[in-house]
Amino acid sequence: MILLTPAPNLHFPDTTALAKFGDAGPQPQILADSERMKVLVVGLNPGQKIPSHPGDQAMYHFLAGSGEMILEGETFAVAAGSTVIAQQGATRSIRAETALVFLAAKPQ
């Protein structure tokens, strides 16, 4: 029998403020990293992008700003309050129109 150590409960009163912005590109900040799940907060400056790539199943929830997410060739406008769920292996990319902050969560 394998016993998993439970991750601590976490609370972030202002998650958007934890995002880091860099001139060279995104600087993801890890909020949680357990045996079962990884959660990041990411900031993109206007015009920056995360290039197209296939990935694991993941949830993206946008906290601030605006931009677009391309998922399997389909473009979605994203802004604060938008959520996109990408399935395993789906190709995705994100481009910021304004300073964009989002959460990304995926199973480990």
Quick structural gist:
This protein is mainly β and 108 residues long. The protein contains no helices and nine strands.
How would you characterize this protein structure?
The protein has one domain: Jelly Rolls, CATH 2.60.120.10. The model has no long low-confidence stretch (mean pLDDT 94). It has 108 residues and is mostly beta strands. The strands form 2 sheets. The chain has a 5-stranded antiparallel sheet with strand order 1-2-9-4-7, with no helix packed on it. Strands 3-8-5-6 form a 4-stranded antiparallel sheet, with no helix packed on it. It contains no helices and 9 strands. A hairpin with a 3-residue loop joins strand 1 and strand 2.
- State the CATH superfamily name: Jelly Rolls
Our estimate of the beta-strand percent is: over 45%
Unreliable parts: none
What name is given to the CATH topology?
Jelly Rolls
- Helix content class: under 10%
Q: State the strand order across the main sheet.
A: 1-2-9-4-7
Please tell me the overall pLDDT: 94
What would CATH call the class?
Mainly Beta
Domains, number: 1
The main sheet comes to: 5 strands, antiparallel
Query: What is the helix tally?
Result: 0
SSE string, helix = H, strand = E? EEEEEEEEE
How many individual β-strands?
9
Taking the alpha carbons of the first and last residues, their distance comes to 19 Å
